[in-house]
Design goal:
The chain is 73% helix and 0% strand. Helix 2 runs parallel beside helix 4. It has four helices and no strands. The chain is mainly alpha-helical.
Length: 107
């Protein structure tokens, strides 16, 4: 079974195209983790014990983001640095405790 140079080239090109397509799909669905991801995740897990509808949940996360951006002088929370992360975590914890303590006392 002899394969011509043109056939070999076609097979190689097809394999390369398949591999590039797979890389594009996998790389487009992933992004680098930022300190904000940890802050947001911790905040969301803290407020998850309280019955908050999705709109209020969104607004609380958005409020935390807004306070952090303005307080730290950054344009987007994805620009939060590792150095600023402890301050952001402390603020998130304070807001989450305020929300959970007061919402639980309403019940």
């Amino acid at each position: 079974m002899n394969i011509t140079e043109a056939e070999l080239e076609a097979v190689i090109n097809r394999k390369v195209e398949e591999r590039l397509a797979a890389l594009r799909v996998s790389s487009s669905s992933t992004r680098l983790k930022t300190p904000w991801d940890d802050v947001k995740s911790a905040f969301e897990s803290q407020i998850s014990d309280v019955q908050i509808d999705s709109v209020d949940h969104y607004q609380l996360v958005n409020a935390l983001s807004t306070i952090l951006r303005h307080g730290l002088g950054i344009r987007m929370v994805r620009f939060l640095t590792d150095k600023q992360k402890p301050i952001a975590m402390e603020l998130a914890d304070t807001i989450a405790r305020f929300v959970t303590d007061n919402r639980q006392s309403e019940s």
